[in-house]
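Run log, item B.
One chain of 146 residues. Sequence copied directly from the ordering sheet:
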Amino acid sequence: MKILKKKWYLLLFFMFAILAVLFMISPQYRVGLFVDIHGDQLEKKILAENPNHGNSTSTVTAPIVPSYMGIRSFHLWEGDHDIVEFSLFAFGFGSETAYYGCYYSFDDTPVPFQNIPVGLNKLGNDCIWFGEGDNWGITRRIKENW
């Protein structure tokens, strides 16, 4: 009987370990971890390169990002609410591709992917948007301005 109890505990331990690993490699966790590690540094660079953001005469520029941060690409998307978007990774092929990343919002306002001009619908703590065809996405606040 003691052997069965030990095997049961061992099985529970491995199940918990597998769930923990799966959680840590989830896209949402990886994006949050990226912002936790690099967010403050990127925010300083963004604000240093855009000291007059918000003035009617200012232009916005995307920061120079060090390659060690592992960013696939980054872009400045201007609109009613300017953002600097960081694309971190993507899964899939063609129209089935899912993109994961984050953006810095100068005025802490949620916007759709690439700041496209579509509305956001509140869904719990998230905002969901629908574009042309099968394009849609979720934007989720990670922390202030992110």
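Observations after the first pass:
- Residues 2-140 form one domain.
- The beta strands are 73-77, 83-91, 98-105, 121-123, 126-130, 136-140.
Flagged for discussion on Thursday.
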